[in-house]
Design goal:
Blueprint: E1 6-11, H1 18-25, E2 32-34, E3 38-39, E4 54-55, H2 58-66, E5 70-76, E6 79-84, H3 85-93, E7 97-101, H4 104-114, E8 118-124, H5 128-138, H6 143-156, E9 165-168, H7 172-188, H8 192-202
Parallel strand pairs: 1-7, 1-8, 2-7, 3-4, 8-9
Antiparallel strand pairs: 3-6, 5-6
The structure holds adenosine-5'-diphosphate (ADP) and guanosine-5'-monophosphate.
Adenosine-5'-diphosphate binds near residues 16, 17, 19, 20 and 169.
């Protein structure tokens, strides 16, 4: 059988609805592995260590950088965020769809390393005003954090063209439907290596 491991990168401003959409689609996209990032930011109310993020100190994060443990990492809103290489490798080996919720810098780094198995989608509310309303409604961050996220969003939106798909999160129902299509499409993407195996099999290579 061909190896079917594939990567789906999701980016979009904080508050775009990425977590909401992944949760709402989770039963409809088959077996997947959601990559739990490591971060130095403080947990929000309700966030659990090892579930939402692995929360670590700056010192520990920097040790991991030195040890080469990250597939990619970046500084976002003044904190470190990174994807550990090992669990991703294992999930890919098992043929799973690996979903990343990472920023635009992370997307570029994943593209540079694993372009041939990567599909990406940029998720955003319809407007900056709506993003601001949702960040305030989520009420997990204080005013300065919200303003910083809005500022960052004005920059991030400029990278929308680097993604395979854009999902406008107007209603959760519609955005979830679109996300399910994107996730199914991502699974169909094959690496060059698999392509070679497939051709050899197809030719009935003796
Ligand atoms: P992200 O994971 O991208 O940071 P969240 O999933 O936490 O974003 O969503 C941010 C806030 O917006 C949450 O309070 C969520 O309930 C709300 N939200 C998400 N999608 C919608 C939508 N389509 N309409 C209104 N509110 C939404
Ligand atoms: P938040 O603090 O709202 O959870 O996330 C802030 C931003 O960091 C989001 O844009 C999110 O996609 C991004 N992010 C989360 N984990 C990672 C990661 O492992 N790597 C990178 N590059 N960005 C991440």
């Amino acid at each position: 059988m061909m190896q079917k491991g594939a990567i789906l990168v999701l980016s979009g401003p904080s508050g775009a609805g990425k977590s909401t959409i992944i949760n709402s689609a989770s039963k409809d996209i088959g077996e997947y592995y959601f990559s739990i990032s490591t971060t130095t930011r403080e947990p929000r109310v309700g966030e659990r260590d090892g579930v939402d993020y692995i929360f670590v100190t700056k010192e520990s994060f920097e040790e991991d950088i030195k040890a080469g443990n990250f597939l990619e990492y970046a500084i976002v809103h003044g904190n470190y965020y990174g994807t550990s290489l090992k669990p991703v490798r294992e999930a890919l080996k098992d043929g799973k769809l690996v979903i990343f919720d990472i920023d635009v810098q992370g997307h570029r780094l994943v593209r540079a390393k694993m372009n041939d198995i990567t599909t990406s989608a940029f998720i955003t509310p319809p407007t900056l005003d709506e993003l601001e309303r949702r960040l305030r409604a989520r009420s997990t961050d204080d005013e300065s954090v919200i303003l910083n996220r809005i500022d960052n969003a004005k920059d991030e939106i400029k990278a929308v063209g680097e993604y395979d798909f854009t999902i406008i999160n107007d209603t959760i129902e519609e955005a979830t439907k679109e996300f399910i299509v994107v996730a199914k499409t991502a699974r169909l993407k094959q690496s060059r290596e698999d392509e070679e195996k497939f051709i050899a099999q197809w030719l009935g290579q003796k």
